[in-house]
Amino acid sequence: MVELFPGKHLFIDDYRIERTEAVRRVLNQPVKHLALVFKPERPWERNAVALGRCYYDEARGLFRLWYGATDDRQIGSRVMHPDNPPLPVYGTHVCYAESTDGITWDRPALGLAEFEGSRENNIIEIPSLPGAASPGVVFDPAEEDPDKRFKMHLMQPITIDNFSPEQVRSCAYSSDGIHWNLSGLQVTPNERLFGVMRFVDEQPRGSINPDARYILYGQRGSPWATRQIGRRDSDDFIHWSENRPVIESTLADPPGMELYWMDGPVVNRTYAGLHLGLLSAYYTDPAEAYRPARNEGVIDTLLAYSRDSVRWSRWDGTFIGLGSAGTFDAGMVLAQYPVIRGDRLYFFYAAFAGTHDANSTPTIGLATMRLDGFVSVEAEHFMPGTLVTRPQRWSCDRLTLNAAVNQGEIRVQLQDETGKAVKGFTLADCDPIRGDGTSLPVTWHGSDQASAVKDRMIALQFRITYGAKLYSYTLS
User: Fold this and answer.
1) Cis peptide preceding 292, ω within 30 of 0
2) Cα–Cα distance measured from residue 462 to residue 386, given in angstroms and rounded to the nearest whole number
């Protein structure tokens, strides 16, 4: 497991919180870019573009996007359930694009694959079966083999023009994300890797490994013929565990709500100690008949979190919501794990103007927020509020805050496990913290050095006045 931002602590869960008084935690929403940022524009994209995976390349200063494209050449049909009518299967392609800002995209002419007599396109040539799903690309910087730094998994129906619940999963590797080598094919019986289980009452087998190198979250069925979130893990990206359920809807959810999808980083890593998931909530009509599941409804995105990737919780309230009627994302919003660029988080999402059963053309939208901006701690009223962390053995020299203090102030006190303030590090000694930044230094009488309390059990007391927002703190 990889730790992003060691020494940083968020306020998404209660793990580091001892007590609070007159403060509240607020779920913040990313700000949407008002227009879609990616849509079908080329002949090989005539029917759809499907969000695969986006990464930010620090060295090149580029957003790199792998996506699925569907043209308008019908090559067959497929039946996913014997009670359902056949669905058309069109020619599909794995494609690549680049951007400096995440908004305006360039489709470089790769010259790798031929389409309608020309190689002037951005199609990545990977030997595959027809009807492939959108590419799941993973960048693994810890991979020792440089030829396998980029990994890709693709799912395809095993047959065309016939009913088959089986899927073929192909795995490919690359050193640069452009030139790929196919590893082989693996038949996955009875269920899709990401999809609703063909046999919804099948009981999952096998164990869960929280320390596995790779983790895939996705949809699976339940004994009630509803969708819920399953989890698979692997140490080699080839052999995967059973699709074990980890998040289910509850009686507290709205009637008819199902959990459609969740996106995580794939490489087993945490964001400041937390596994984060962008959870797609599917709102259906409970009166609709199963076919074999409810196929009509709308989808928005929630924020889910876990300390071990197995036991999950989620915040009440929408994290990335639907657009207004008539917009490109009015029907469904399925968000991807955030891309980090400097002090901003970029949430690319698959956007649909229509509902789940409306067969609308998918496009790609974008929402952004500040680094660590998921949940803020704020004073409830005009009076100052307090948050105290659990004591921990002090081993740092400096303390910085990610905070927006455009009015009011924040002060920090170091105190022992009994609540007694450490001399020289009291609230009165702390210089008022004001301003807006992701790394605001905490100082006491002008000094940011806190090594004097090294090896002692120390808790932090934050005093937050009205108008200030605290997003995270970092011990360094």
Assistant:
1) yes
2) 6
Q: How far apart are CA 356 and CA 333, in angstroms?
A: 10
Helix, strand, coil proportions of the chain in percent (round to 5)? 0, 50, 50
Residue bearing tokens 């087993």: 268
Encoding tokens for residue 42? 């080329």
Which domains, ranges and CATH numbers included, belong to the chain? 2-28+375-475 (2.60.120), 29-189 (no CATH)
Tokens of 37: 């940022």
Take residue 397 and report the two structure tokens written for it: 């020299």
Check if the beta carbon of residue 114 is closer than 8 Å to that of residue 43: no
Q: What is the pLDDT of residues 25-39, one digit of tens each?
A: 999 999 999 899 999
pLDDT band with cut points at 50, 70 and 90 for residue 192:
very low
**Structure pTM?**
0.94
Query: Checking DSSP bridges between strand 392-393 and strand 399-415, what pairing results, if any?
Result: unpaired
What single-letter amino acid sits at 258? Answer: E
Dmax (CA) for the chain in angstroms is 77
**Distance from C-alpha of 278 to C-alpha of 135, rounded to nearest angstrom:** 18
